[in-house]
Amino acid sequence: MRAATGVGDEVEATMRAVRLTAPGVLEQVAAPTPTAGPGQVLLAVAAVGACHSDLHILDAPPGLFPTPMTLGHEIAGTVETVGAGVTGWSPGDRAAVYGIIGCGTCRACLRGRENQCRRVPVGGIGLSRDGGLADYVVVPASRLLPIGELDLIQAAPLTDAGLTPYHAVELARPALRPGTYCVVIGIGGLGHMAVQILAATTAVRIIAVDTSMAALDLATRMGAHHVVQAGPEAIETIRAIVGPAPDGADVVIDCVGVDATLTTARTVVSTGGRLLLVGLGGGTLPVRPVADEPPTLPLETSVEVPFWGTRAELQEVIAMGQLGLLTADVQTFPLERAPEAYDLLRRGEIHGRAVIVP
Known about the structure:
Blueprint: E1 2-4, E2 10-12, E3 14-22, E4 25-32, E5 40-50, H1 52-59, E6 69-70, E7 74-82, E8 94-97, H2 107-110, E9 136-140, E10 144-146, H3 152-172, E11 181-185, H4 191-201, E12 205-210, H5 213-222, E13 226-229, H6 234-242, E14 249-254, H7 259-268, E15 269-277, E16 302-304, H8 311-322, E17 330-334, H9 338-346, E18 353-357
Parallel strand pairs: 11-12, 11-14, 12-13, 14-15, 15-16, 17-18
Antiparallel strand pairs: 1-2, 3-4, 3-6, 5-7, 5-9, 5-18, 7-8, 8-10
Helix pairs in contact: 3-4, 3-8, 4-5
């Protein structure tokens, strides 16, 4: 991976990369082309999803995330080279990247739940080390999953935008009984995937909630049975579908996580229901363990904060993609427009998932 100068010397080869160069600063630069070390694979990046989590990294205070660092944790591409000791992968193989890198030794990691690692809370590709917004990325071979002939632009968002709601649905699956109601709030990058996962793997009645009518139209196409426009009358509209308290939605998946959506979520969930807080919008969910009237949460309600998912679950998500049961609605951008894609994401002007295509 080195280029000749023409005068008998060699210089280190460079590649394009979109990097966090300082807190709040995202720019395309020329970076050294990495090489695969022992146990690693060099992946030629084909597609990278732009996630709201990247905005949290951009907005983080100094010192919380390393700089400079290449962003991008939703990655799919083609194996370029393999490092020493790597078996099962060859140049040209197509793969998706499982972005989490846990400690590998805590009780959660040993059980295959690296998303619950007890020693590395946010470790991973594009989170604590260079990610995929570049021509190439080095990843541990253990992080790769084969995708067969699945389209690479489709494969990239499955690794988070597909995996995270799939994991949430798996956590709530005991409550997702035939004929029950599940409310999905926020039909964006994760929410439109959640609707499809519910439609393909359960027999629940799906209620989609969003401020955008275009997003609600997308939800209908993806399998939602009811759509509700967010606003002052949303709770009343949902209640007309699910019934009055203490009945309600057996499961609510909030893919936004701001105060307004959390209020909707806790107000429409049933007694004994499940709230899954997928969105990281910075809202607050009040919880008081007393029998208030009205209560902050119905009795026997459980609240969970899903984080990404497991490698085994990603394999299942990829299988759903290969079967045509899970399709990402994408807007694509070339690498040089990655900063623009994040600006549009921040302003809420991305439909489905933005995918950067180097």
